[in-house]
Structure formats: structure tokens, C-alpha cells
């Protein structure tokens, strides 16, 4: 201890290696963690944690309808999934529909027309609106004729006008546009994700898809040449006798059972996707009264490919950071070893003297090891401060995301102590093996 | 009673293929409270003998009895303990720790002692020793702030801190002028006479040897004269 104080300059130089090493580790870890988190967030926005629950196959006279054929999923299932599955952060029912959207003299066939709840935006990480606000749960309960539209729809129908507050017509029902979604671009398959209209599922179910299945009588004659309901498969057959369109439009409720085409679910994290699948399976089996030996009447799909991309990206980042950290620490350690070796040579006479007055080789070993470890720990502490400062500066100046990593700090301190022991050991061992006679005579 | 006794001590160094016999059967004894000078030309085996006497090295053959113990076969750690407990060293070049106060220099051997000594106790003993060598007012000075004679006195204080049985002084006045040399030698005599401390002065300077009560001369690895106390000083 005193020996270190006696030669502050040498001690400081020795420590510098470790300071730089640890600072590099901390800064790299924090900047890297921030970037990694940002990348993960981006991938999560693409829907890597999303699960889709589809109703299962049903057999009609021996003919399979394929996925989505049965009508067993209800909005209640979505609510139950959200409340009863701990791995799930959001769940929304989705009703598919096909309809032409009309505004003034322009029309457009939207790529997707979904009836859903506001939770859909949460699932898709789409809550930030470009303009206006999303529709509310109250709109869903009231079967309000409101909708939220994507960027592509705005371009095609409004051509530069602000759509908020305007009304578009879907299947002869006027929907007030309350919000515009932020542009999301194409998905991994190249489909335009902004070509979308979202409305309360109750409204789509009872006013739009119901109307489309009840026949073309309400469709304006001018548009009859290519009717969407003829081009695309019609909505699934209704469980109940179909009321007239007037009845339907005026009294959409009460309804005992409403089926939905899909439930979209978002898991808490990539790791919890699997547990979410298990929880949902158990829950829906119970809700649908499926006996243990019977197959499920629903299918759950996850985004395996995206999830894999995500985990490999995370792994890549972690490995990269580890390698950088290891290199910096080894460089720091070699620096420490160098200066400790020089120090041993320089202090040979001192070592000889200490041995002459009764120091055993273990005492000398301890002394030099302690010096190395103390230097490394001091270096570690200074390095942490320097690394934190660097990452804060990077955040302030470059506006990069950084994240404090307690793990990195713990690891850096542990590793700097370890480096002290490892790289301090050889010089210390060398010092302890000196012959006191030679050491005393050393010039 | 004899403090140390050597019987037919040989020391052979192996230099590659060649064996170099430096000590060829040294027999000598030094009694308690003696002040002895060990003289010899360079190459005579004087340094080797001193290393063996000081437990820094072990003999190739022969017996070495120190304070009633046969220690020729002691391991390096055992020898370190013996050095710490029984022997004080004074070197030609003082060998003080630089940038360290006189007081801390004197304390240093205590940190390697077998039994634990509290820091306050260490300071007290070191201060007492420094007072004894006449440096009461220089305790916080660093070696670079002290004259050669003062530095050697710090070294003597350091060698005495563990209350050794034997003080080995290797050319203690080699780096000092004649007046300070005289002071240092007077101090050795005083220590020898007042406290009964056994002192071996290793030197090639007859003037230094004069202060001793007996002179052991060594030549070509053999004791020439003065191997035991019965002989008269030559």
C-alpha cells in the first residue's frame, strides 16, 4: 500500500491500462445495450412477439373448410386471454371484411378492412397516430361508425387533404375518420401494411360484413360490374336467420354469440412467446369445453421467422460486445503485467532487503499481488466513471440510445480484479522467486 | 557459551559443468557478546561465508549451529523466519526504502514478524530505536533528506528493531567518510559493550577491523586465523 503511494506516477500509469479497458467495456456495453434494445424494439414493432389465434377447421359433409372454417372464437375469448394469461400484454379480436371505400368521387379497395378494438394498435405497436386519435372501447360498445385509416388510404382517397373528421363510405355505411395511422411500410412478405382501415369490430360485423352477406340490393347500381363480395369469398354463414338490412342497420344488438375471424395477441417478450401459446391453449380449451382427448378447435400461429431473426440479432450483438470487452481487458491486463514486471526489476534491491529482514517468498508474492489487485480495482472504479461519462456524452452529443447496464459494471469490476490477479501473478511470482543474495547485490 | 558454531562447512557452486568450491571446510565459533571482524580479500569466500552466517544461503555440507539450533538443512522459509528473529543486517549501501520516512523504514521488519505487532506498538519501538541511534529529530525524514551517516544509523536502528542475537554488518563504513565511519564504529562498540550484542563486521579494511576484539581471516575458502575465541588478536 505504502509502496504504491511512494510511486504515484508509476501506479497511475499502470492503472491507466485497466482504466481504459474498463471504460471501454462500460461504454461499449452501454452503447451496445442501447442499440441492441433499439434493434429489439424495432423488430418487436414488426410484430415478432405477436401470436395469432385462428378458429380451427370444421368439416361440412366430409369437406374440410381449412383454417378459419369454424366459428368458435368470440370477443370474450380475447378478453379472457388478456386477463387470464400472464405472458400476454394485449389481445384484440379481429373481424375481416371486404368493402370498397368511397370518398367523394374517388374509390379504393383497401387491402385490409379490420373490425377490431383499440387493443389491436397496442398489439401491433402502432399506438402513435400520425394525425387524430384512435377509436375507443366506447366506440366498440356503441357500434360507432368511426374508423382509423392507413397512409395508403389517405393518399388514394384524400390526395393531400387532411382526412380527420371527413366521412368515407364503406358498403354504403358512412364512417367518420378519427385518426390516421403512422406509416409502417411493407411487411416481410412485401404486402403494404398501410393499406388498411380499422374500425370497431361491432360496426364491421353488424353493419358492414353483415350487410355484404345480406345481398347486393343496397349496393349502388353504378358499382355493380365488379362487386367485392363476388370477387372475394363471402363472410362465413351466419348462425342466426338473416334479418333484413334495415333491421340489421337499426338494431345490431342484442347478440348472444358473435364470432370473430382472428384474435391477435402480443406476448410480453420473445422468451415468453412459448409460455403465452401454452397459456392460451389451456384457456381456450377450457372456455370451448374441449375434452382432453379431442383436438383443439383453434390454431395458434407465432412469428417463428421473425422471432428467430430477433434472437440471432440479440445474440450477435451480445457476442460482439463480449469480444470487444475481452480485447480491451486483455490489453489493459497486458499493460498492467508490463509495468508490474518493470516494477519488479526496478525494486529488486527492495525485494532483497525485505527478504533479508525476514520476508518469506509468500510475503513478497502477497505484496505484489495486492499491489496489482489494488491497482486494478482503482482502475476499475475510475474506468466505470469514465465509461459512464463517455456513454452519457455519446447520448447527449450523438443522441444514441444508451442503457445503463448494472451487469456490465459488476462484470467489469470482477474482471478487473481477475485481470489484476492473473496478470499480476507472474511478476509477483517472479519477485518471490528472487534469491535474496542476488537481489541485494543487484545494481 | 557459543552463539554460533560452524563445523567443516563447505560451499560449492555449480557453474555449468564446472564445480567451484568456495568454502573448503570452515570451522569457527563466535561466543555471545563478541565483537568480531571477518576479513579477507575479494574472492576469498568472505561474502559466501557471510551469506551462510546470515542464513541467506545454506551450506553444501557441514553443520551450522545458531543459538543452539542446527540449521544447515533449513528451508528458505525457515531461514527467513530465523533472519527475522535472530539476525540484524547492516549493508554497505544502507538499502533503505526510498520515499519512505525513517520511522517507516525502521518499522518494516516488524511487518514480517512471526507474532503480530500492533501499529502503535511498532511506532513506539521504532521511535525508541531511532532515539538510541541519535536520530530522534529526524524520524519523519526520507532517506534522500539524510546524510550517509544518518542513513546508516537508520539502517542500524532497523536491524535492531527485532532485538536480534546477531548483528551482521557487511562493509558498514564502505560508503562513508572516515569521520562518520568512526562514529558508526563507535556506535557498534557501544552496542556491543552496553547491551552485550554479538556483532560480526565483514570488512577488508584493517582500520575497521581494529575496532573488533577478534579478527577472523579467511583466504581461499579456509580460515587462516582467529577461528575461535582462544586465539589472541593478531
Produce the secondary structure layout:
The complex is a heterodimer of chains A (443) and B (234).
Chain A: H1 2-6, H2 8-45, E1 50-55, E2 59-60, E3 63-64, H3 75-84, E4 88-97, E5 101-103, E6 106-108, E7 112-116, H4 119-123, E8 129-132, H5 137-141, E9 146-149, H6 151-158, E10 167-170, E11 173-181, E12 196-200, H7 201-213, H8 228-231, H9 245-250, E13 262-267, H10 273-287, E14 298-302, H11 304-346, H12 348-356, H13 361-398, H14 406-432, H15 436-441
Parallel strand pairs in A: 7-12, 9-11
Antiparallel strand pairs in A: 1-13, 1-14, 2-3, 4-7, 4-13, 5-6, 5-10, 8-11, 9-12, 10-11
Chain B: E1 2-15, E2 18-31, E3 35-39, H1 46-53, E4 61-66, E5 69-70, H2 76-86, E6 87-90, H3 102-107, H4 119-132, H5 148-160, E7 166-170, H6 178-195, E8 198-203, H7 206-209, E9 214-219, E10 222-225
Parallel strand pairs in B: 3-8, 3-9, 6-7, 7-8
Antiparallel strand pairs in B: 1-2, 1-4, 4-5, 9-10
Would you give an account of this structure?
Chain A has 443 residues and is of the alpha+beta class. Chain A folds into 2 domains: 2-42 and 310-441, no CATH class; 49-302, no CATH class. Helices cover 52% and strands 15% of the residues of chain A. In chain A, the strands form 2 sheets. In chain A, strands 1, 4, 5, 6, 7, 8, 9, 10, 11, 12, 13 and 14 form a 12-stranded mixed beta sheet that branches. In chain A, strand 5 and strand 6 form a beta hairpin. Chain A is elongated, with a radius of gyration of 34 Å. Residues 211-228 of chain A have low confidence and may be disordered. Chain B is an alpha/beta fold and 234 residues long. Helix content of chain B is 32%, strand content 28%. Chain B has 7 helices and 10 strands. In chain B, strands 6-7-8-3-9-10 form a 6-stranded mixed beta sheet. In chain B, strands 2-1-4-5 form a 4-stranded antiparallel beta sheet, with helices on one face. In chain B, a hairpin with a 2-residue loop joins strand 1 (2-15) and strand 2 (18-31). In chain B, helix 5 (148-160) packs parallel to helix 6. Chain B is globular, with a radius of gyration of 18 Å. The two termini of chain B are 23 Å apart. The mean pLDDT of chain B is 88. Chains A and B meet through helix 12, helix 13 and helix 15 of A and helix 2 of B.
Amino acid at each position: 500500500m505504502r509502496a504504491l503511494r511512494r510511486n504515484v506516477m508509476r501506479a497511475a500509469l499502470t492503472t491507466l491500462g485497466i482504466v481504459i479497458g474498463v471504460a471501454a467495456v462500460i461504454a461499449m456495453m452501454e452503447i451496445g445495450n442501447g442499440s441492441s434494445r433499439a434493434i429489439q424494439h424495432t423488430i418487436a414493432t414488426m410484430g415478432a412477439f405477436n401470436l395469432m389465434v385462428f378458429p380451427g377447421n370444421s368439416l361440412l359433409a366430409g369437406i374440410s373448410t381449412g383454417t378459419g372454417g369454424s366459428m368458435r372464437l368470440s370477443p370474450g375469448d380475447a378478453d379472457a386471454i388478456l386477463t387470464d394469461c400472464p405472458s400476454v400484454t394485449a389481445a384484440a379480436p379481429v373481424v375481416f371484411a371486404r368493402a370498397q371505400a368511397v370518398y367523394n368521387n374517388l374509390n379504393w379497395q383497401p387491402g385490409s378492412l379490420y373490425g377490431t378494438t383499440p387493443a389491436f394498435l397496442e398489439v401491433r405497436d402502432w399506438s402513435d397516430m400520425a394525425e387524430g386519435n384512435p377509436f375507443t372501447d366506447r366506440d366498440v360498445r356503441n357500434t360507432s361508425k368511426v374508423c382509423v385509416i392507413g397512409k395508403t388510404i389517405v393518399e388514394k382517397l384524400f390526395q393531400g387533404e387532411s382526412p380527420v373528421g371527413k366521412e368515407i363510405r364503406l358498403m354504403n355505411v358512412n364512417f367518420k375518420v378519427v385518426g390516421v395511422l403512422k406509416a409502417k411500410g411493407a411487411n416481410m412478405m412485401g404486402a403494404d401494411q398501410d393499406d388498411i382501415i380499422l374500425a370497431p369490430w361491432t360496426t364491421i360485423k353488424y353493419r358492414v360484413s353483415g350487410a355484404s352477406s345480406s345481398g347486393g340490393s343496397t349496393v349502388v347500381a353504378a358499382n355493380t360490374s365488379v362487386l367485392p363480395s363476388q370477387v372475394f369469398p363471402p363472410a362465413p354463414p351466419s348462425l342466426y336467420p338473416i334479418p333484413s338490412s334495415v333491421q340489421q342497420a337499426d338494431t345490431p344488438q342484442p347478440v348472444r354469440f358473435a364470432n370473430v375471424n382472428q384474435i391477435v395477441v402480443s406476448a410480453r417478450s420473445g422468451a415468453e412467446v412459448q409460455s403465452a401459446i401454452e397459456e392460451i391453449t389451456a384457456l381456450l380449451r377450457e372456455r370451448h369445453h374441449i375434452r382432453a382427448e379431442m383436438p383443439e378447435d383453434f390454431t395458434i400461429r407465432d412469428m417463428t421467422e421473425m422471432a428467430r431473426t430477433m434472437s440471432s440479432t440479440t445474440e450477435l450483438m451480445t457476442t460482439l460486445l463480449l469480444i470487444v470487452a475481452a480485447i480491451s481487458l486483455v490489453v489493459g491486463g497486458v499493460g498492467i503485467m508490463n509495468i508490474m514486471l518493470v516494477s519488479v526489476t526496478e525494486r529488486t534491491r527492495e525485494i532483497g532487503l525485505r527478504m533479508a529482514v525476514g520476508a518469506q517468498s509468500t510475503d513478497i508474492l502477497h505484496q505484489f499481488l495486492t499491489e496489482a489487485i489494488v491497482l486494478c480495482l482503482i482502475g476499475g472504479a475510475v474506468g466505470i466513471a469514465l465509461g459512464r461519462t463517455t456513454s452519457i456524452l455519446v447520448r447527449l452529443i450523438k443522441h444514441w440510445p444508451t442503457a445503463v447496464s448494472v451487469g456490465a459494471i459488476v462484470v467489469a469490476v470482477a474482471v478487473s480484479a481477475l485481470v489484476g490477479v492473473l496478470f499480476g501473478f507472474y511478476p509477483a511470482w517472479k519477485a518471490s522467486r528472487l534469491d535474496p543474495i542476488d537481489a541485494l547485490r543487484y545494481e | 557459551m557459543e552463539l554460533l558454531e560452524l563445523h567443516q562447512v563447505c560451499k560449492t557452486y555449480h557453474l555449468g559443468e564446472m564445480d567451484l568450491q568456495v568454502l573448503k571446510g570452515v570451522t569457527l565459533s563466535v561466543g555471545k557478546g563478541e565483537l568480531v571482524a571477518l576479513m579477507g580479500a575479494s574472492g576469498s569466500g568472505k561474502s559466501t561465508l557471510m551469506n551462510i552466517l546470515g542464513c541467506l544461503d545454506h551450506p553444501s555440507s557441514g553443520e551450522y549451529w545458531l543459538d543452539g539450533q542446527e540449521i544447515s538443512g533449513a528451508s528458505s522459509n525457515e531461514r527467513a523466519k530465523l533472519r527475522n528473529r535472530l539476525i540484524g543486517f547492516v549493508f554497505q549501501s544502507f538499502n533503505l526504502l526510498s520515499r519512505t520516512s525513517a520511522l517507516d523504514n525502521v518499522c518494516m521488519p516488524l511487518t514480517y514478524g512471526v507474532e503480530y505487532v500492533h501499529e502503535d506498538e511498532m511506532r513506539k519501538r521504532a521511535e525508541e530505536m531511532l532515539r538510541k541511534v541519535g536520530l530522534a529529530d529526524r524520524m519523519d525524514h526520507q532517506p534522500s533528506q539524510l546524510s550517509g551517516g544518518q542513513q546508516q544509523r537508520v539502517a542500524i536502528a532497523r536491524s535492531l528493531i527485532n532485538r536480534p542475537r546477531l548483528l551482521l554488518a557487511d562493509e558498514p563504513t564502505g560508503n562513508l567518510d572516515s569521520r562518520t565511519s568512526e562514529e558508526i564504529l563507535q556506535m557498534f562498540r557501544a552496542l556491543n559493550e552496553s547491551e552485550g550484542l554479538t556483532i560480526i563486521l565483514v570488512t577488508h579494511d584493517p582500520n575497521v577491523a581494529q575496532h573488533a576484539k577478534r579478527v577472523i581471516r579467511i583466504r581461499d575458502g579456509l580460515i587462516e586465523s582467529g577461528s575461535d575465541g582462544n586465539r589472541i588478536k593478531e
